[in-house]
Design brief:
This protein has about 120 residues and is an alpha+beta fold. The chain contains 4 helices and 5 strands. About 25% of the residues lie in helices and about 20% in strands. It has a 5-stranded mixed β-sheet with strand order 1-2-3-5-4, with no helix packed on it. The N and C termini lie far apart (about 35 Å). The relative contact order is 0.14.
Length: about 120
């Protein structure tokens, strides 16, 4: 896509990879940054789950960093746990589903489904 190419030849701006059937995405920039480790990992759930097991003490170590499926582990690395059908859930009724999702810490599929069904 025009304007989405890497900032510098030989660098990668976006990458998608699969490890043991799990999809991972990575983003980077060749621009100089004055900050440390940020949200480099986005973990997408391929099962129809809300990520409860990952949020409940297994991966999330900084409760105040939790928002919209984002969490921070004990090493300071940020992750995003979202259901595989997140786009579909939000597209059902964006005026209702987006505000509901923005208030969530972990993504709760049932709440998004309910918001998508409302008029």
């Amino acid at each position: 896509m025009e304007g989405e190419e890497p900032d510098k030849a030989g660098t990668v701006k976006y990458a998608q990879l699969f490890l043991f059937g799990q999809e991972f995405g990575a983003m980077d920039s060749a621009l100089k940054h004055e900050f440390g480790l940020t949200r480099p990992f986005r973990l997408l759930s391929t099962a129809k789950i809300s990520g409860d097991r990952l949020f409940l003490g297994r991966l999330s170590a900084v409760p105040e960093a939790e928002a919209c499926g984002w969490l921070k582990d004990k090493f300071g690395v940020s992750w995003q746990i979202t259901p595989a059908n997140m786009g579909e859930l939000l597209a059902r009724n964006p005026e209702k589903t987006t505000p509901v999702m923005l208030k969530m810490k972990k993504v709760v599929i049932a709440d998004l489904e309910k918001a998508g069904e409302s008029e």
